[in-house]
């Protein structure tokens, strides 16, 4: 059993809870790693080269989420999609 965080109604026994994200913000992740590149040069053998890679990846970070009942989940889902 759980209490819906939107309508404050206590759920029935064995009723499933739904989690809905109501607020999220863009987040930028900085990823750094070292890559080893092997270069083959004709007649001179192989040469290893270390390359430092810096990558910026964009993602989403969840700010606020609610545990809600099915009714509220359906209501909120439509609202968020239309926004
Ligand atoms: Zn509810």
Describe the secondary structure blueprint for this structure:
Elements: E1 18-41, E2 45-68, H1 70-82
Antiparallel strand pairs: 1-2
Bound molecules: zinc ion.
Zinc ion binds near residues 4, 7, 9, 68 and 71.
General description of the model:
With 83 residues, the chain is α+β, with helices and mostly antiparallel strands. It has one domain. Helices cover 16% and strands 58% of the residues. Strands 1-2 form a two-stranded antiparallel sheet. A hairpin with a 3-residue loop joins β1 and β2. It is rod-shaped, with a radius of gyration of 25 Å. The mean pLDDT is 90. The chain binds zinc ion. The site of zinc ion has 8 residues, from α1.
Distinctive features:
83 residues, alpha+beta, two-stranded antiparallel ribbon, 1 helix, 16% helix, binds zinc ion
């Amino acid at each position: 059993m759980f209490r819906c965080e939107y309508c404050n109604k206590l759920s029935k026994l064995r009723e499933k809870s739904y989690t809905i994200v109501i607020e999220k913000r863009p987040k930028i992740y900085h990823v750094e790693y070292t890559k080893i590149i092997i270069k083959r040069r004709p007649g001179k053998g192989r040469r290893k080269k270390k390359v430092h890679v810096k990558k910026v990846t964009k993602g989403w970070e969840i700010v606020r989420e609610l545990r809600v009942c099915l009714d509220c989940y359906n209501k909120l889902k439509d609202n968020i999609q239309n926004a």
